């Protein structure tokens, strides 16, 4: 399956975190998980220059590797999230890495 034409923000009910979904893998989505934590499972997360959610004043992080999960665990995100121009290079670097 091809990559999505536009990335979209969705909520992952398995991880209980928002995710940036960018790849359609048939029955799964390829995504980058978003969090407020500096570390996830003893792995240092990548700090973003600006938060995806403009209303949220906390620092935002993404996992340093993309993941994949079944489509049925995702639902559309209600908040207004956008990828700022300062974060685009960071996001593209993570997208190029292999899935975990």
Automatic annotation (TrEMBL):
<protein>
    <submittedName>
        <fullName>Uncharacterized protein</fullName>
    </submittedName>
</protein>
